[in-house]
Design brief:
alpha/beta; Rossmann fold; five-stranded parallel β-sheet; 7 helices; 51% helix
Length: 178
């Protein structure tokens, strides 16, 4: 069976991609690595939600729980408008590296599920990481299942965050409501 490493940003965004990949007969392992999430309480809530979902669906979960917001801030300071490139690249590089090291057949990401993320940029960065690390990137456009995944997350009572994770996205969330 083909083994896929799924970089997972959170529980709700994992639901539809896991369903699709398993429906294709793939063995899915989730990988949580999201050092951009702030504050720490939000990071912990998202990790707990993913752990609960993974346990309920029997999804092997690899957690890289290092939390270092200072490094994230240093990398994006004065480059806030291009912060997503750094953030996506950081996580996709880690997923590609782990997938290669752990002998997965390929990797993909739940970032391709959200209608709010920069889809083309994510795809491009993942393809670059795959080339660099000599591992296949399994591209799937999971956005078609956005509504279905969110409804299932609500029904299951899984914690659903209201912003991408970084402090800048949280600020944008509240700024839009003013």
């Amino acid at each position: 069976m083909t083994r896929i490493l799924l970089h997972a940003c959170c529980g709700p965004c994992s639901i539809y991609p896991v369903s699709v990949l398993r429906g294709e007969g793939l063995a899915v392992h989730a990988f949580f690595y999201n050092p951009h999430i702030q504050p720490r309480q939000e990071f912990d809530k998202r990790l707990a939600a993913l752990e609960g979902y993974a346990e309920s669906e029997n999804i092997p979960l690899i957690v890289r729980a290092d939390y270092d917001p200072q490094t994230f801030f240093r990398q994006v300071a004065f480059r806030e408008t291009s912060r997503c490139t750094y953030c996506y690249s950081l996580r996709l590089e880690a997923a590609a590296r782990l997938a290669k090291k752990s002998r997965f057949d390929a990797f993909t990401t739940t970032l391709l599920y959200s209608k709010l993320q920069k889809h083309a940029l994510i795809k491009s960065l993942a393809e670059e990481a795959a080339r660099r690390h000599g591992i296949e990137f399994l591209y799937r456009d999971f956005r078609a299942g956005w509504k279905e995944g969110q409804e299932k997350a609500r029904a299951l009572g899984i914690y659903r965050q209201q912003y991408c994770g970084c402090i800048y996205s949280e600020d944008e969330r509240f700024s839009k409501k003013k």
